[in-house]
Amino acid sequence: MAEFFAAFWNLVPVTISHGLLYALVALGIMIPFRLLNFPDLTSEGAFPLGGCVCAALIAAAVHPLVAMLAAVVAGFGAGCVTAGIHLRLRINTLLAGILVVTMLWSVNLRVMGKSNIPLFSLPNAFDQAWRGFTASHGAQIVFWVALSAALVVVLRWFLRTEVGLMVRAVGANDTMARANGVNVAHVTLLGVGAANAFSAFAGASLAQIQGYADVAMGFGMLISGLAALIIGEAITGRESVLRQILAPFVGAVVYYLVVALGLAAGVHPSDLKLVTGLFVLGTLGLPAFRRTVVREPKLRA
Amino acid sequence: MLLLEGIRKTFNPGQPNEKVALERIELSLEKGEFAVVIGSNGAGKSTLLNVVAGDLAPDAGRVAIGGADVTALPAHQRARFIGRVFQDTGACTAPGLSVEENLAIAAGRARTRRLVSAIRGTARERFRNVLAPLGLGLEERLAARVELLSGGQRQAVSLVMALLGEPKLLILDEHTAALDPRTAEIVMRATVEAVERTRITTLMVTHNMHQAIAYGDRLVMLHEGRVLFQATGAEKRALTVEALVERFGIVDDELLLA
After folding, report:
1. Domain B30-58+68-81+167-258: assigned CATH number
2. ipTM attached to this prediction
């Protein structure tokens, strides 16, 4: 038992900083799902796209900050492509997302020229800005907590501005938005783009912090992000803008702490995706399950 | 103020289920005129409103609002000239947003939205002032989410929203049809008051013959995509339900019983 707690305790610092990094992916899932009512899967591809673009450019001796910026722009573009496919070709948002994710796999391989780029010996934006950043759990926690707090504050402000209300109107009732002069297509395009820019930023950050980018680094990212979002919403609720924005951050930390608990308890890492998938399935399926439970006594009566 | 010239609209052209919804519609409303459009199911009432609002592009013809040709403008760009209230009590409002946020969205219709707090300065006071005359106590519920309001309250908020931003044309698409009689009466009274106060040009579609007789200063009867009959001024005031029924041999129970 003591061993288990020691193992878990050792995982906590890295879990918090990684959790908040992955919170950006959960945020990139929350924005289309909850704010725009546009269920979007693109983050599964935007996340590795960010990592691959950033790594390829750093390997090509581009300044790491420029490489990160390019990664964010690429993620934004990926989101716009998904939204554009849906808006222009009237293809279901989920299918549009799967199409883009699938195509991005090839794009990512093209961008990198191989399936994996090591960055250990190359400069990265974090260590340049903060000496010893990638070696220090403390520095990483401080950075990600500060970034998350700043994002929450800015997003809460933004969603109450005139422009922000326009975004929320599109998600809440697009007929109403249109009748009130909102260009629904533009807002959707920019919103889904921005969401995937967050995912790409997370991918670019992870590549630099872990010291490599891999074409498979996005695998399962969407389901983990969705699980994090669901957990977060269960904790914070969704009654206000602030609660909705906090959900991905709170949820991602809690989700990865639970994963760390599982790992410390000896769950095999390769089983994690199955467990996470079952969790998401269980949560999403709970309402249906509840209905049958309620109906059963009636049938007997 | 509103001019429709030779509007045609056919759904599914060239297919077995082809349907001519509008066939050469000519209609002209003066500034401040309140027109009531009646007609049975399939007469083309909704199609007409959708063409005016820009949700549907006509196959032929011209739509002009306040002298400007808007035929090529998409709905969201026409929104600065047009306020709309639909029949569905949920259609005109964003359910998860508060009353004041909904009003702020509508108030921003006629101008470019900026990155500034949507509810600032005297906005709340202004919103209270436009809600109070409804007599529904909505001015005390600015922060309440719209989904918590009753259907009648939502329609009243929708009406107030439609009139924010000083549009040139008000479109009412059977906006009291989904309400119980008492609430419908309240919303209709608020509508008439607002139309009289603002002198806004209004196009109201109704299924209800009594409403069509009681309100407005022009009656437009649509039938199979054409304007079958129009009455204004003294002729409109002299109309009765019985006279209309007799004249057009209306056998559509729906129109009479609504």
Report:
1. 3.40.50.300
2. 0.88
